[in-house]
């Protein structure tokens, strides 16, 4: 089944690339705005041979990784503390519902005012957007803890941290991994967006320069790189998720009785 899916995916990608080559050649779209796949591939090869490209890639990955680590750490800690403390849960409910829907891009002017085009501006946006993905999933996971298991742990004399480790964490972990996977994708989107709009060093800034200088094939080549990067991050996150949840029925394919 996996081999069949991979073959179908490869065929779909090949058809898409062929369509991207044929449509401009037939004059259905202007090559100046949508160059053929072959020209984009040539531009991509040129980018890969440029040291500045790898520096920009490193800048993007640095902002993505640091922001993701901060967001995941803060989201897990805050989610557990808020969920296990009724007072905190009630006190923060309205604040969370108010802040969570605010688009991260709306904070771009604030980030620029505070930090200019530095890495810290990127981190503000990445952390803000990714934090909510993790926090909400952790809170859902904690709320899904079986009350019977919780009471059984209490009856056996397990302390607070022992209950968190042996009861709460195994239940919440699938939710946590989902939050991390979503946060990883959101972090990349915001990192590139921040670079594109703010001008912070990275792939986004390089895309903006290519666009303003009318280097259209190079611009598409860089867009392809960001797409491939997103794909690799998603695949990596799913791989980590499967390994971390190897014991869980959703990964083993078992049906709960």
TrEMBL record:
Protein name as annotated: ABC transporter permease
Species of provenance: Streptomyces tauricus
Any one Pfam family match given in the protein's UniProt record, by short name: BPD_transp_1
Subcellular location: Cell membrane
Membrane topology: Multi-pass membrane protein
Main location: membrane
Family per similarity comment: Belongs to the binding-protein-dependent transport system permease family.
CDD domains xrefs: TM_PBP2
Transmembrane segments annotated in the record for this chain: 64-86, 182-207, 219-237
Source organism, top-level taxon: Bacteria
Keyword Cell division listed: no
PROSITE patterns given in the database record: ABC_TM1 (PS50928)
Lineage: Bacteria, Bacillati, Actinomycetota, Actinomycetes, Kitasatosporales
Keyword vocabulary terms for this entry: Cell membrane, Membrane, Transmembrane, Transmembrane helix, Transport
Domain ABC transmembrane type-1: 57-241
